[in-house]
Every structure is written in C-alpha cells, then in structure tokens.
Amino acid sequence: MTTTKTSLLCAAVLACIAFTAFTAGAQQTQLTPARDRITDEAIHADLTGYEHTQGRIQALNDGGRPIRDYHLSKAQCWLDVSFHEYSRNDRSAFPQEALTESEKLIVGMEQGVTPLPTDTPLVNGAARVREDLWKRLGAIHGTPGFACAQQAVACGEVELVHAGNEFNQQQWRHAKPYIQIAEDWVSDAEASTRQCGAVPAVLPVDTVLTANVLFEFDRSGRSDIRAYSLQSLDRELARLREEGLTLAKVELVGHADRLQGRGHDYNQALSERRAQTVRALLLERGIDAANVTYSFKGDGDQVQQCDGVKPQAALRECLIPNRRVEVRLHVTR
Fold first, then answer.
1. From CA 316, how far away is CA 52, in angstroms rounded?
2. pTM here?
3. Which end of the chain has a smaller Cβ tally under 10 Å, C or N?
4. So which residues are the signal peptide here (predicted)?
5. Are residues 222 and 148 in the same domain?
C-alpha cells in the first residue's frame, strides 16, 4: 500500500472514530415507549422532540449547509419517515431508530466532522428490498452528477429502508407505496445527474432512462398492466421532451415471477408476450418500430425474492416487481 493510500485510509478511519464518538456522546431524543404513548402529555413531549430536531436541521441550513446537501437531506428524510410512522402509531422500534439516524447526522454536521458516513443502515431489521433500485442509487455516488442529485439519492435510500420495514411488518401490500416513492426518487436522481452543471453537447455513451411496466399474475395483456407503472413509463418518455433528448433506441426485456417454476418454458413465453404488449404500446406512443428491440428472460432475473411470504395471495402481490418489462430508453442529445 502506498503512503498516499495509507494516509487516506487513516484519515477515513479517524473520521469514522470521531463521528462515532460525537454521536455516542450526544444527547439523543428518546421517544416515549409505545406502551406508555397513551396520554396527551406523552405525545406532546414526543412532538416537542420532533420539533426540536427539525429546528436543528433548520439551523444547519441557516448556517450555510444547503437543503440539497446529501447529509442534510438524509437527516431530514430520516426525520420525516420517523414522524410518518410515529403518526401512524407504529409500535415498533422504527420511529425511534430512524429518528436516531437523523440525529447522528445532525450531530456530525454540527461538530464539523468530515467525511460524514454515506452508509444507510437497515434500521429495525428492515428487509433490503428492490436491490435493483439500491444499485441504481449506488451508481450515482462518486459521479460528477452526484452534486446535483444528492437530495434525491439520500431520500431514495431512506425510503427503501422505510419500505423494507413495512415489508417486514405487513408484507408487500403495505410496502408498495413507499417503493413507488423510492422509484420516483431514483428517477429524479438520474435526471438530476444528467442535467448537472452546464448541459453537455453530447451525453455520456449509453445514457439510459429506465422504467418498469408491471403486470398482474399470469397475465400479459394491456388491461393487465398496473396503472401506476404505466404512468412511470409515460413520465420517462416525457423527460425526452423536457430535457431535449433524442431517443436512439429502446430495449425491452420481459420477465416473469417464479410461481410457475424457475426456468419453466411457460414463464419464458409469458415474459415474451409481456414484452410484445409493451412494444405495441410504445409504437402507439409514436416510437419508431425500427428503434425497438425486445428480449425475454422468463423467471431468470428476480429482483424481489419474497422468501417466507404467505398466504398465496400475499406472495403473488409481493412478487409483482418480477412480473415486469424493463424499458430501457437509450438517449443522446
């Protein structure tokens, strides 16, 4: 290891130790235990704690740290999901642990610790759902465009943890709204990355806008598409006009869930029919047929495992991210 690399490693380790020391020694807000959260006085005390934490975030912003800053945004989003679940009477440890994550970052910023951590803990044992979305957010870290996408990346990561917590508590039906929010953050983050700074005359090679069109179980027709996923596709198509992008080609990849048996020929054919359905929809939206290609993978690429989910209806709902057609819009400027 070179001297430079050793110095950088030591600096990172020392910063981590400093951050841990500051956050461990700080006075953290303690919410009333769920079993005691039954009086107006207790609830008022908790709300006062939330207001105080919000005030600390505002003070950091007033002191010059912009709202779009990754760590300030993340502190705000941890605070928001904590309060959201507290307001919904979540009796688990999630509201407290999410609030604590917010305060850890606040303390680090108040004390001027650098670098601050960029990890996103799965608080309250949250499931790590939608690995594909985690990867898309992770790919933005360290790029020049991250400077413009910090808020969306930070909040997307926190919202995925929020969804994973809901998945553990009440399975996929309750996690789904937060997954949709996370998908929106991911899309916004990627758009902010593309538009960051002076708009380049030419985009980086193979710039891709992505949307997933989702289907009902064992279905492949137009009426079997989940409406919100079609809206996601239309939003990505609208970005072409908004950002002045030229569509070079469209790549469709059909998928199926695992319920007909992994690798089964039936799922291969089902995933192909889904890709064909989405292709027809794109042609109706004015996309040149010569620019659209499709392939299909059956159940060979599952983005949501849903291990242990029962009964069957809940399992089918949980597996819906796998019943998808990936729409990859390859663009240039």
1. 43
2. 0.85
3. N
4. 1-26
5. no
Split into its structural domains, the chain has a count of 2
- Count other C-beta atoms under 10 Å from residue 122's C-beta: 16
What is the model's pLDDT at position 13? 38
Burial 261-294 (b: 16+ CB within 10 A, else e): eeeeeebbebbbbbbbbbbebbeeeebeeeebeb
pLDDT digits over 18-35, tens only?
455 445 545 589 999 999
Q: Is residue 189 part of a domain?
A: no
| β-bridge mates for residue 215, sequence order | 225
What does the DSSP 8-state code read for residue 215? B
Pick the closest to residue 166 from 179, 175, 155, 158 (CA basis): 175
Going by C-alpha positions, the residue among 219, 226, 223 that lies closest to residue 179 is 226
Q: What is the pLDDT of residue 203?
A: 64
Is 121 within a domain?
Answer: yes
Among 149, 180, 211, the domain boundary falls at 180
* Host domain of residue 328: 201-332
Same domain, 48 and 113: yes
Per-residue pLDDT, averaged over 63-84, amounts to 98
- Asked whether residue 324 is domain-assigned, the answer is yes
- What the block records as the tokens of 290 is 């010569």
Question: Taking each helix axis from N to C terminus, what angle separates 94-110 and 3-25, rounded to the nearest 10 degrees?
Answer: 120
